[in-house]
Amino acid sequence: GSLERRRCLYLHTGRACCQMMEVLVAALILVCSSVSGGSAGGYSGLPALGGIYYYQYGGAYSGFSGADGERAQQLDQRFYLLKLPVARAAVAVGGCLLVFPCVLILIGVLRVPWHFPAWLLIECTLYIVIAVGIVPALYYFFHSLLSVYNSSVCKEREQLYQSKGYQGFWCSLHGAEIAAGLLGCMVAMAYLLSAGLAVRDYRTVHEQKQKPLQL
Question: What's the CA angle centered on 213, arms 211 and 215, to 5 degrees?
Answer without folding.
Answer: 75
